[in-house]
Amino acid sequence: SLLLDLAHRRWTLLVWVAAVTLLSAEGRRVRQPRCPVGCICTKDNALCENVQSVPHTFPSDVVSLSFVKSGFHEITGGSFVHTPALQLLLFTANSFDLIDEGAFLGLPHLEYLFIENNKIASISPFAFRGLKALIHLSLAYNNLETLPKDVFKGMDALTKVDLRGNNLICDCKLKWLVEWMHYTNATLDQIYCSGPPIHQGKKINDLLPNSFDCITAEFASYQSLKFESISVEAFIFGKDQYIVFPQPFAGTCSFLEWDHVEMTFRTFDTIESTSTVVCKPMVIDNHLFVIVAQLFGGSHIYKRDSSANKFIKIQDIDILKIRKPNDVETFMIDGESFFVIADSSKAGSTTVYKWNGNGFYSHQSLHPWYRDTDVEYLEISNKPHLILSSSSQRPVVYQWNRGQKKFDRRTDIPEMEDVFSVKHFGVQGDLFICLTRFIGDSKVMRWDGAMFKEVQTFPSRGSMVFQPVSIGKWQYAILGSDYSLTQVYQWDTKTDQFVQSQELNIQAPRAFSVVSIDDRVFLFASSFKGKTQIYEHLMIDLSN
C-alpha cells in the first residue's frame, strides 16, 4: 500500500507539471500579437491596405512590412519602434505627403526602405536618423522638389539611392546632394533637374559643386547713431580709418573712429560750425585737411594739428564765389590736388580750387547762375572729367584740357532734366553713372564711347540719393526715398542690370559710404530726419 501511495503521488505531480506547462504555453499564444485589421500576415511578411494609421502591433516574426493605398497623411516620429525586427519596409500608392523627424527610429536591422509613388513633398532633415544598416533607399516618383541638407548623414551602409520621378530643383538648397554624390559609395540612377532655368533638363549626376553660385550678401543693422546728418565721408589718415558726418542742425562735423575692443564706432573729434552741409576730408602729403561747407557764415578749411591733437582753421573760402554750397569733390590730376565746390545759389559760381603748397586758391569758375546741386569727378577714356548737376539745366560734362590746365565744357546729357546728382561706377571695364531724380525716374546710363546711353530706369519717390556702392565682387546701387523704404539693388552680371535685393528703413537718407575695418565691411547711411544708421555687409551661403 505504501508503494501504491508513492506511485499515486508521483503521478499527480507529473499531471500538475504538465498542466502548468500547457497553461503557460497557452498563455504565451494568447499574448502573441495578432495581425492588425486591414493587414494580411504570413510567416514573416505583412501587407496593409487602406489603413488609416500605422499599426503598433505585428507578429514578432514579421521582417517585411508593406503599406498600400493607406489613408494616413504623414509618417510620424517613432511609428515603428514596436517592430524592431523589420528588414524591409515598403510604402507605395499612399496619400501621405510628409515624413516626420525620427520616423524610422528603432529599426536597427532595416536594410531596404521603399517610399515610392506617394505624394511626399517634404522630408524632415532627421527623418532617416538611426538607419545605420540601410543599404537601399528609394524615394522614387514622389513630389519632392528638394531634400534637406545631410538627410543621409550617418547612413554609411547605403549602396543604392533612387530619386527618379521627382521634380528636383537644382538650386543652392540641393548643392549638398551634388557634393554628397561625389564622395558617397552609393550609386544613383540618372535624375534630371526640373529647374532653375540655368540647370533645367540637366542630369544632376553631371553637375559639379562649382556649378552653383551660392554666396550672396545682405546689409544687417549694426549700430544706430543718435544724430541727424546730411552726408557721410570715410577716409584713411595715418593708417587709421575715420568717418565724418556734417550735422546741419547741431552745427558740427562729427568724426568717428573704430573701437577695436568694444567693436563699435565711437566719437573721435568734432569741428564746430554753422548750418554745415559738407565736411570733406582731403589728405595731402600726410596732412589732413577738411573743407567745411556752410550755408551761412561762409565756408572754411581746417587742418589737423597732430601735436595739439585738434583741428585748426587755416583758410576761409571766397564768400563772393561760394554763397550756397551743396557738394564738394576732391581729386588729383597729374600729381596736383584739387577740390571743387558746387554752388546752388543764383549769385554764386561752382569753383575749382587748387593746392599750391601753402593753401588753396581759386583755380577756375566753371559757370555762374545755374544753381548746381552736385559735382562728380570721374575719368572717361583715361581723361579727367566733371559732371555738374543743376536745378536749371541738364547735367553738363566738362573735360580737362591738359594744355590750358582747365576744364572745358564738352557736352550735356540729353533728355535728363531735373537731375539732382550724378555718381559713377565701373563694371568689367565699362563706365556707368547713376542719375538721381527726386520725383520721376532715376536712371543708370553706360558710356558708349561718345555719349551716356540709358540702361535702366528706377521709379523715384522723393529720392535725394542714388548711390553706387562697390564691396568686393558685389556692385550695388542704393536708391533712397523720403516717402518710402530705401531700395538696395545688386548688379546681375548675367543680364548686365541691377536687380532688387533688399529694403532698408532709413528716414530721409542723403548719402552712403563704405568702411572696411578688421576684415569687416560697414555701410554708413546718413539720415536728414532720423538716426544715422550703420549696417554690416554679411556673407550668406544659400546652400546651408
How is this fold's topology laid out?
Layout: H1 2-31, E1 39-41, E2 45-49, E3 64-68, E4 74-75, E5 88-92, E6 98-99, E7 112-116, E8 122-123, E9 136-138, E10 160-162, H2 175-183, E11 187-188, E12 215-225, E13 233-237, E14 240-247, E15 252-259, E16 264-272, E17 276-284, E18 287-294, E19 300-305, E20 310-316, E21 325-333, E22 336-343, E23 349-355, E24 360-368, E25 372-380, E26 383-390, E27 396-401, E28 406-412, E29 421-427, E30 430-436, E31 439-447, E32 452-461, E33 466-471, E34 474-479, E35 486-492, E36 497-504, E37 509-517, E38 520-527, E39 532-541
Parallel strand pairs: 2-3, 3-5, 4-6, 5-7, 6-8, 7-9, 9-10, 10-11
Antiparallel strand pairs: 1-2, 12-39, 13-14, 14-15, 15-16, 17-18, 18-19, 19-20, 21-22, 22-23, 23-24, 25-26, 26-27, 27-28, 29-30, 30-31, 31-32, 33-34, 34-35, 35-36, 37-38, 38-39
Report what the structure shows.
The protein is built from two helices and 39 strands. It is mainly beta and 544 residues long. It has a domain at 39-212: Leucine-rich repeat, LRR (right-handed beta-alpha superhelix) (Alpha-Beta Horseshoe). The protein has an eight-stranded mixed β-sheet with strand order 1-2-3-5-7-9-10-11, with no helix packed on it. A four-stranded antiparallel β-sheet has the order 12-39-38-37, with no helix packed on it. β34 (474-479) and β35 (486-492) form a beta hairpin. The chain is elongated and about 105 Å long. The termini are far apart. Mean pLDDT is 91; it is low at 10-30.
